[in-house]
From TrEMBL:
GO terms for molecular function: DNA binding. It comes from Paenibacillus qinlingensis. Gene3D superfamilies: Winged helix-like DNA-binding domain superfamily/Winged helix DNA-binding domain. It comes from the Bacteria. Keywords: DNA-binding. Residues 15-149 form the HTH marR-type domain. This is DNA-binding MarR family transcriptional regulator.
C-alpha cells in the first residue's frame, strides 16, 4: 500500500480509511491555506481561526467572550487564547460589562477593520487556489458529502 493512497483494486475503503484520509487532507489543506495567506501578505499571527474571531466581533460590534464562544462553537478557554493573542497585536480590546463585572466585552481597535478586509480578500483568493483542482461540480459534490457528515 502506498502512503496516502488506498490499496489498488476493487476493495472498498473502510470507514477508518476514509476518516484518516479526511484528517490528513484537512491538515494538508490547512497548511496550504496558511501558506497562501502568508504569500499574500497576511501576518503569520493572523491565522484563519483568528480571522474568524475578528469577523465575528466585527459583525456584532461588541460581544461578550462567552457569547463569542457560543457563536463560533468553541470552548471559552480557546476564545481566551485567541483573544490574548489578538489583544497582544492591538487588534481588539476587552472592556468590563457595566451591568455584570464578571463578564468581558470584546471590541475591535481601529487597526482591525483594514486588516480584516485584507484578510477576507486573501482568504478568498487562497481558498480558490487551494481548491483549484476541483471543478464546480466537484466542489458541490464535496460540499454535499461534508454536510451529510
Amino acid at each position: 500500500m502506498k502512503p496516502n493512497h488506498f490499496p489498488e483494486g476493487p476493495s472498498t475503503p473502510t470507514a477508518g480509511d476514509i476518516l484518516q484520509l479526511l484528517i490528513r487532507t484537512t491538515h494538508r489543506l490547512h497548511t496550504q491555506f496558511e501558506e497562501h495567506l502568508a504569500a499574500l501578505g497576511i501576518p503569520a499571527y493572523l491565522t484563519g481561526p483568528r480571522v474568524r474571531v475578528l469577523i465575528a466581533i466585527e459583525e456584532e460590534g461588541s460581544i461578550r467572550m462567552s457569547d463569542l464562544a457560543s457563536k463560533l462553537g468553541i470552548k471559552a478557554r480557546t476564545v481566551t487564547q485567541f483573544v490574548d493573542a489578538l489583544e497582544q497585536e492591538a487588534l481588539l480590546v476587552r472592556t468590563t460589562d457595566p451591568d455584570d463585572r464578571r463578564a468581558t466585552f470584546l471590541q475591535l481597535t481601529e487597526a482591525a477593520p483594514p486588516l480584516i478586509a485584507k484578510a477576507r480578500a486573501a482568504m478568498s483568493q487562497a481558498s480558490d487556489e487551494v481548491l483549484q483542482s476541483l471543478s464546480t461540480e466537484g466542489r458541490s459534490q464535496l460540499q454535499s458529502l461534508l454536510l451529510r457528515l
